[in-house]
C-alpha cells in the first residue's frame, strides 16, 4: 500500500487522527503526510470529514428516510440532469443512481415525519421526470459507514496474559 | 494429598501476580495482554454456529478432522513451503499449548535436557519440568536483537541438550529470525543431534518480511516439530485450536498421549478453523495491517520518550528497556500510579531482565492514552 493509500485508509478509519499520529502509524515524515492530505483535498479525492453519529443518543434525533425514485428520461434530460436538481435540496443527504427496480436512491433527513412527507410530496414527486416514489422511514440504524452501533463487544480479555 | 515434586518445582507464574494487581484496579489500560483485541472472523464464527445447529457435537478423529488436516497441509505448504502429509504428519490439538505439552511428554525421558531460547512464552520451562525433563535456559541478547546465535548456544552448553525450543516470531520481544539467521542454528542442531521444537504461532504476524520456518532448512524437517494454531492470526484464542507438524513417528507418539488425555480437539472449533483457513485471508491481512500501524506508533512514541526499544518485526509486542533498572518495580509503580499495565520482561525468563513487554493488541485510542501516561510517568 502506498503512503497515499495508507493515509486515506487511516482517515476513513478515523478522520480525527492528527498528522502526528498518522505519521507515527505510517512511519513517515509529518510534513510528507500534511502535503499528501493537502493534495488529496485539492484533487477532490477527500471531499469532507464527517462524524459517524448514533442519533438515538441525541435528544432531537432527526427523522431519516430512504426514498426510491423511478424516472423517465427524454432526449433532453438525462440522469445527471435529474440528479443535479435533486442534490440541491438540503434535505437530501445522499443521492445514488442504482441498478434494479428503481433508479435513484435518496437519503433524506428532516426534523419530523411530516417534514419528510411534505418534502417528498411537494419537492421530489413534482419533478416532471419522476414517475413514482416509495418512501421508507429509517427505524433503527445498527451499522453505518462500517461502524457498528451497540455492538456489545466489550473488552473482556484478562488484564494481563501470557 | 501432596502435590508432586514436579508441580512444586514450578513457581507460580509472574504474570499471575501482575494480573491480580491489575484486576484490583479500575480504569486500567492494559498493554499486558497476549491476545488479539479483534474477534474471530465472522464467517469462522458462523461456521462454528452452523456446526452446532447441525448437531455436530461428537468427537472427531483423534488427530482432528481429515478435511481440517488437509486444509492445514495446503495452507502451510502455500504460506511457508512446509510439505506435510495430512494423514501421517499433522495432529490437531486444543491450542498450540496442548501440542507443545504433548510433544514434551512424547519425546522426553526423565532427565533429558531441553535448551529453551529465552526470553520466551512462559510455558516451555514448566512444560519440560512437568514432562520430567531438565530445562536449560539459553538467554538471547539485546545486542543480537534477541535472535538466537550459535555462540550463545555454545556458551550455554546447549549442544549437550537433547532438544531445543525456539519461538519466532517471539513473544515477548517481537524478534523474528530470517532464513540466513536460522541457518547456523540449524547447523548447530544437526551437529549436536538436537530435536527442535519450533513454536510458530505468530508466523502470520510479521511486518516487512515473510516468516521462515526452521523446518524448511536442509536436514531439519526430520528433526523439527512445528507448532502453530488459530489463536493469534485468526483471533480465536478462546476456541483453543492448534496443531503440530512433524514426521510420522513423532505424530504417532504425540497422538498416543493426546488420544488418552484430550481424545480430540473441540469439534466446534475445528469447523471454525476449517472455515478460517478457507475464507479468512482478507481478515488476517486486515488485522496484520492494523497491528503494523500500532507497532509503528508505539515504537515511534518510545523513541520520542528516549526509551531504547529495538525494532520488533513480528508478533504484537515490543520489548523496550525499562526506564528503571528494576523492571518489576517499574511495572508495579507504573500500574499503581497511572493504571497502565505492562509486564516485566524477567517473567519471560533469562535475557528478559530490565525490559518490559508492551502489547499493542489494543485500539489506537487506548494506546495513545497509555503512551501519554507512560511519558508523563517517566518524566
TrEMBL record, chain A:
Q: Which GO terms describe its cellular component?
A: cytosol
Transcription regulator AsnC/Lrp ligand binding domain mapped to chain residues: 70-139
Q: Name one GO molecular function term.
A: sequence-specific DNA binding
Any Pfam family: AsnC_trans_reg
InterPro entries assigned: Dimeric_a/b-barrel, Tscrpt_reg_AsnC-like, Tscrpt_reg_AsnC/Lrp_C, WH-like_DNA-bd_sf, WH_DNA-bd_sf
Report the CDD domains cross-referenced here: Death (cd01670)
Q: Name one GO biological process term.
A: response to amino acid
Q: Kindly list any coiled-coil regions of this protein.
A: none
Superkingdom field: Archaea
- What is this protein's record name? AsnC family transcriptional regulator
Automatic annotation (TrEMBL), chain B:
- Its recorded name reads Aminotransferase
Indicate the segments forming the Aminotransferase class I/classII large domain, all copies: 27-374
Identify the species of origin.
Halococcus salifodinae DSM 8989
Sequence similarity? Belongs to the class-I pyridoxal-phosphate-dependent aminotransferase family.
| UniProt-listed SUPFAM superfamilies | PLP-dependent transferases
One Pfam entry name: Aminotran_1_2
Query: What EC number(s) does its UniProt record assign?
Result: 2.6.1.-
The enzyme class is transferase
Q: Which UniProt keywords apply?
A: Aminotransferase, Pyridoxal phosphate, Transferase
Instruction: List the InterPro entries.
Output: Aminotransferase_I/II_large, AspAT/PAT-like, NHTrfase_class1_PyrdxlP-BS, PyrdxlP-dep_Trfase, PyrdxlP-dep_Trfase_major, PyrdxlP-dep_Trfase_small
Ranked from the top, the taxonomy reads: Archaea, Methanobacteriati, Methanobacteriota, Stenosarchaea group, Halobacteria
- Name a GO molecular-function annotation: pyridoxal phosphate binding
PANTHER family, A to Z: ASPARTATE AMINOTRANSFERASE, ASPARTATE AMINOTRANSFERASE-RELATED
Q: Which GO terms describe its biological process?
A: amino acid metabolic process
Ribosomal protein: is it a keyword of this entry?
A: no
Q: Provide the assembly information.
A: Homodimer.
**UniProt cofactor(s):** pyridoxal 5'-phosphate
